[in-house]
Amino acid sequence: MNYAKQIANLGTETAFAVSAQARIWADKGNKVYPFHLGDINLKTPQNIVEAMIKAVGDGKTGYCPSEGILPLREALANDVGQRRNVVYSPENVAVQPGGKPTIGKFIAAVMNPGDEVLYPNPGYPIYESQIEYQGGRAVPYSYIETESGFDIDIEKLKASITNKTVAIIYNNYQNPISAESSKEEMEQIADIAISNDLWVLSDEAYFEMIYEGKSRSIVEIPNMKERTVILYTFSKKFAMTGWRVGASIGPEKIIKIISKLNINAESCTTHFIQGAMIEALTGDMSGSKEILSKLKNRRDVAVSGLNAIDGIDISKPRCTFYLFPNVTSIMKKKGFSTIDQLQIGALENANVSFCTRNHFGRPQDNEVDFFIRFAYSGISAEDIDEGLKKLKTYFE
Fold this sequence. Notes:
Oligomer: single chain
Structural class: alpha/beta
Order of helices and strands: HEHHEHEHEEEHEHEEEHHHEHHEEEH
CATH topology of the largest domain: Aspartate Aminotransferase, domain 2
Number of helices: 13
């Protein structure tokens, strides 16, 4: 018996492989400092937990509409629209079991086999995986390292567009590099999409994980709301990574297609969890504010600890919970030729576990520098400080 050929094109989230390495090392009696996975070791706010329990008690345990229950879609349309200065209705919302399903369903809705989709690289690896699995050509665009972080290489992006390009995936407040677009950069992306008549998937998983200033969305730019689908998730803001609930938000016609895909994939998103999400959006927000405050403190400790290491110099990002330092000089100092050697060495010599640039899309031929990613969402401030001091000793 044979297997489907397209399975060979299906990638994975390789950060979980690093989790397995860390788990094996911990099972040997070592204390591991876990900077590898973007999970959150903080509790979901209690009012949301109580709302979920009440929904179960009220019998919200059966099937519900494939597009999501109306009260939640109303709450999402109102909350997402207000925060982005646009108007959405429930017809613009399809609830999903997490944010990730939006990626595959968006691609299924707008891309035919052989079409091309632009995606950020380094970036969330499921973009590349879903484009290629569904028979498209994944065309990467890259970033330029600057003194204040990373900027999109706009000229390379423009040069990558062909008559087969149908969409661009745009992840402002970006995983893994915490890149935040300036107003001008966002307008450039919008101009490219409009002038080339492209669909846009705006991955806004970290839209509200911002520590200073105000978040911006590309849908606020004129003529962008009509061609953009927002990937929305509750996972980050409310520390709910395991609850698996999110939404696709966009033009009504594409949302109807996504809802039809929902029927084929999972019938519906868990009813009682949807009930709790209404409380998340409309109830007491003190819990989510506390989560953000703790993450901000961890960011400050992590940035300080990394900048104390000879060979690392990073700016302080305003968003997400990732840091992406350039470690090229450390690679040379250690005499390593591959970034995997540094990653394994750090685990076995300093008990520090992190991902590398290679876990976030295939490296491009013109890349010469080496980067690693630190997630500070699943580790306490005390352990961040302790772990990075051990890493400093190993790196230096």
